[in-house]
Amino acid sequence: MSTWHFTVVKTVIKNAGKSSTHEATLKDEDSWRGVVDFGDPGPLLERLEPGDEVTATVWRRDIVVLSKDGVRQNSSDAPRDELQMNAAFGMLAGLVAAEAFTFGAVRLVRPRDCEPFTWNPYGKWLLIASTAACFGVGLPAVWIGIPWWAVPAVGVPAVVCAAGLMHHFLRPRAAGGV
Fold it and tell me: DSSP letters along 74-104, please?
C-alpha cells in the first residue's frame, strides 16, 4: 500500500439508471494520466474541481481511496469485506452437512424404515429451502449492509421452520385417516 499525490483533470458524474458514471481523471507531475471509477458521487467526488490536489491510496496498482482535506472516498477498486455472503455459503454448507448427517444416521438406525428421511421428496425440498434461505437472507444483507451474523441468525430458524412444515405436510398419510 502506498500514497501518491495527483491533480484532478476532470470529473464525470452522470446518473442515468443502470449506466451511471462516476469517475475522476487524474494526472501526476510526470506524464501519467488515469481514470478512477467510483460507485457514487459522494462524499468527495462531487466536491472535486479540475486543478484540485488529491491524495490517492494505491493498493496492488489500483487506486482504492481518494482524499482531500480530510474527506475520503473509496473507489470501485477498493477491497470489500462482504462477510454476509461468506456466512451464507458457510451456512448452506453446514445445513447440507446436517441434512446428510441426519439422513445417514436415520438410515443406519432404521435401515428398513427410513421414511421420510429420504431424498424424494423430503431431502430435495429441504435442500431447495436451505439454498433459498441462504441466498434469500445473504444477498439482501449484502445490499442493505446488515452485519454478517444476522445471516445465520435469520436463515437457520427459517430453514428449521421450513423443515418442520415439510415434515408435517410431506409425511405419508394413513389410508382413510384424519
Answer: E-TTS----HHHHHHHHHHHHHHHHHHHHHH
Which H/E stretch holds residue 160? Answer: helix 150-170
Distance CA 174, CA 178 (A): 8
Residues 81-137 pLDDT 10s: 678 888 999 999 999 999 889 888 888 887 787 677 777 778 888 899 999 999 999
Q: What is the DSSP string of 19-37?
A: G-EEEEEEE-SSS-EEEEE
Three cell numbers written together for 101: 448427517
What SS3 class is residue 144?
Answer: helix
Q: Alpha-carbon distance 97 to 56, whole Å? A: 45
Of 64, 76, 73, 83, nearest to 142 by C-alpha is 83
Q: Which three cell numbers stand for residue 26?
A: 487524474
Q: Decide if 36 contacts 54 (C-beta within 8 A).
A: no
Q: CA 116, 120, 121, 122: dihedral to nearest 10 degrees?
A: 50
Question: CA quadruple 43, 41, 145, 83: dihedral positive or negative?
Answer: negative
How confident is the model over 86-97, as pLDDT tens digits? 899 999 999 999
